[in-house]
Structure formats: C-alpha cells, structure tokens
Amino acid sequence: xxxxxxxxxxxxxxxxxxxxxxxxxxxxxxxxxxxxxxxxxxxxxxxxxxxxxxxxxxxxxxxxxxxxxxxxxxxxxxxxxxxxxxxxxxxxxxxxxxxxxxxxxxxxxxxxxxxxxxxxxxxxxxxxxxxxxxxxxxxxxxxxxxxxxxxxxxxxxxxxxxxxxxxxxxxxxxxxxxxxxxxxxxxxxxxxxxxxxxxxxxxxxxxxxxxxxxxxxxxxxxxxxxxxxxxxxxxxxxxxxxxxxxxxxxxxxxxxxxxxxxxxxxxxxxxxxxxxxxxxxxxxxxxxxxxxxxxxxxxxxxxxxxxxxxxxxxxxxxxxxxxxxxxxxxxxxxxxxxxxxxxxxxxxxxxxxxxxxxxxxxxxxxxxxxxxxxx
Length: 375
Fold this sequence. Notes:
By secondary structure, this protein is mainly alpha-helical. 62% of the residues lie in helices and 6% in strands.
C-alpha cells in the first residue's frame, strides 16, 4: 500500500515539475514576480511614509508596525485574487488547444493524477507570490501583536485560499474549450465571492428588519432648560432591528474577512478608558474588520440603556458603562470563530473544481466540447 501511494505521488511530482518548467520558460512569469515585489515594496514603504508624516501625537513607528502584517497580507491577497485563478484557468484547455494534453494522456497515468498535478503545479507557482513577499511577511510577523503562531496560521490560510482559487480555475478550464472563456468565468466566480456576496448582503439587509418592544430611558427636561438635571423614566417602545444573523453567512466566504478573523482574537483589545497616564496600545486594523463580521453574525443587541445604565453628562460612574461594555462584548463575541467556516466554503468550491477537472480528463473521453481536437 505504501509503495503504491509513493508511486502515485511520484507521478504527480513529475507532472508538477512539467507545469513549473513550462511557466519558468516564459519571461512573463518573471516580470509578474518583479512587479509583485515592486508593488509590495511601494505598499510597505508608502504606508510607512504616510503613517510617520502625519502630524499627530500617536504617529510613530510602533503604531505603523502594528499594522504591517495586515498591510502585507492584504496586498498579497489582492494580488492572489487577481493572479491565482488565472494560473489554472487555461491549464487544461490551453494544453488541449496546443495539442500537448493528448500526449500526456497517452501515458499510463490516471485522470486524477493529471488533475492533481496540474492543480499543485499552479498552486506552487502561485506561492511564488508569497515567497517574493517573505521579507516583508517576516517583518510583519515579528512586529504584529498576534504572536508568531497565530501570524503563521494567517499565512497558511492565505495559501489555502490560493489553492481553492486554483481549483476553481482548473474546473472551468476543463469545462470550457476557449482559454479566454475559462479565465473570465474563473475571475467572475472569485469576484462574486469578494464583491458579489457582500453586495447581496447589503441588498437583503433591509429585509431582515423586525420590530421588538424594548425598555429604554426617556428624559424630560424641566422648562426646556438643559442646565438642570432632567427627569428620567423607563419607557417601553417598539424599535426596528436588523437580524443580520440570518444572512451573515453571505459574508463568510469573503477572503478579506477570513484573514482578519484568523488573527483578531489575539489582537490588542479595544480600550476606551484607561486608568494610568500611559495609553495602552490600540488594536491593529484587523480587529475592527473582524468585529464587523462578528456583529453581523451575532445580530442585534435587543436591549436599550435604561435610566440606571445610561451614561450622561449628569451621572458618570464606572457602573454606568456596564451597558455599553456588555453590548460591545455581545457584538464581538464571535471574533475569531467564523474564519474556518468561510475557509470551508472555499475548500468545497475548490474541491468541486478539481473533481470536475478529473472527470473531464478521463480517457477515453465520452464527450468533448465543439471544436476540441484530441491531438
């Protein structure tokens, strides 16, 4: 069994090598890597210049370095969203058009070996983008407030997202005859995950509204004077709340929400009030992004501040903040608990694309698209 498995993967390794050598022969791939490093360098040092040139008290290196990891991963993800699907979108129909696929299929390899080899070959090519940015990634991991283990996990999730997108492109490459058509379909699918699903969430947002009766504070000012302490009484009112917990899953597959959610649970906590003279460090930009996803998943906080909870200019104490602290704790209670669900959706889509590609690579082929030649 072990020998058979080793033999199976050795064939896949040969196919991966063929894919990589085919890409390395082209100067376009080298130009792509050079452009990637240039864009990454501009993003890193440009953000440093903008952060340190701001005339504010908290504009310092530590504040910028805290967000370096998020900046590098964000740029990497943006470039990967554009490039990763394209790497496999022409992998099968391009070889079929050049009459080189049939030569490989004539060898004693299975359709699954061929599909997995092409997928992993494209994925390794895509990981070159991560390798090019590795100096900045190491810099960001060291400076990030999340810890080395959590930061490395974020990079691993980024690489897995690229693998999923490569699988989607491979499936379309097997389904369509024209490389241009498969590239367009792949990009459309990826951008639907990135932009389409959040847009659909926004369209359905108003449909989740529901009325609830809540008890809240109502102030009455004596003689319309704002200089005196107003009378406060708790009144039951009907308010409309949007139950986003019913449609939050539309945001889960978005990679720009998945990656912040991986690290946000280990970020610096948001502190609004501090007792010492020294201000505690702020969280990175990943925390508010992850809190947005958490707020959508938890839904509305069906409670209003009462007279005992309301913070006003007339009564301020530590106990008055309890309501708002509880609200923030409720809305951020799902931070760090949604990224693996979104990643699972992407894995399913990538696995579906790989399965479609493997079935289409069977020999002998049952049906072929119009205009496709065997050799």
